[in-house]
Amino acid sequence: MAETMPAAAVPTDFGRSLRACLRCSLVKTFEQFLEAGCENCDFFVMERDKDRVLECTTHNFSGVIALMHPDASWVARYQRIGKFVPGCYAVHVAEPMSEELQTLCEDRGKKYIPRHTLNTA
Question: Where is the signal peptide, in residue numbers (predicted)?
Answer without folding.
Answer: none
